Amino acid sequence: MTTAIAPHEEPKRHQIMAWSADDIGFQKVELSPGKVMAFNRIFHDEIVMLAFTNSTWRSEQNGRDYLETPQHVVIRDAGQIYSAKLEETSGRAAPECREIYLSRERFTRLMAQSEDALPPLDFSNPCIDDPQVRALFVTTHQAFERGDCLLEASTQLSWLMARMAQASSGRAVQISAARCQKRSRLAIDYLRENFYRKVTLEDLARVCEANPYVLLRQFKAEQGVTPHEYLMAYRLYKARHYLRAGLSSAEVALMCGFSDQSHLIRRFKQRLGVSPGSIVGKPV
Predict the structure, then answer these.
(1) What structural domains does the chain harbor?
(2) pLDDT tens, 44-60?
(3) Structural contact between residues 204 and 215, judged by C-beta atoms closer than 8 angstroms
(4) Is 45 exposed, middle or buried (0-12, 13-18, 19+ CB in 10 A)?
């Protein structure tokens, strides 16, 4: 049910936050209950993926009507003419819409990297009703929003694209065993040598001369963790070494590839259960 607005009370404006990272556009919109939001026969130059929280939309494209709910991830092809209207909001939390914008060139590059492992996305039905796609979309968007580990974010995007292509087309991901060469050692060496840099999955795949989707699966199968999880473990290992040497947390954060000191502290507490300050001067 749509949230009620008291008489004569002016609804708040929708709050929009937009940013870009790794040549990808992102947007997060906090919807104001009671405030009309509608789009009539518009299109984007980019491929758009979006998901809603606590709101339902009614849309139309190619002469067909769709009900877009919080269970869906919605995809629209570049240049697709569509109309959409906010149907209702629900829940106590503020309704929200998260969006990812991929240029046609960026999308083509992502798909080409799979070396035909991924089936093509089917844009004829904009609504993908798949819990795993929904969860991957949210974690991918949040990873880019935090911006503290580009390898983690680009890895999440690859998982999202793979699952979305599979759910959209109804076809399985096809990975040829002939291409699954042993690349984990090369990937580990590169991560250790460049732990202080911003590393993307594209960088890693290029160094390993491997399909990124194959590399992800093979690395996880052989090491038990993803490349970004390995990178984070190595960064924390180096951070402990530098802290014991007497360097400050702020210095260590920059030296080990963390976005800032708070990122270092957050990862320490997540992985080690303690703050960086408790490590100083203590053998680990």
Answers:
(1) 15-116 (2.60.120.10), 175-284 (1.10.10.60)
(2) 899 999 999 999 999 99
(3) yes
(4) exposed
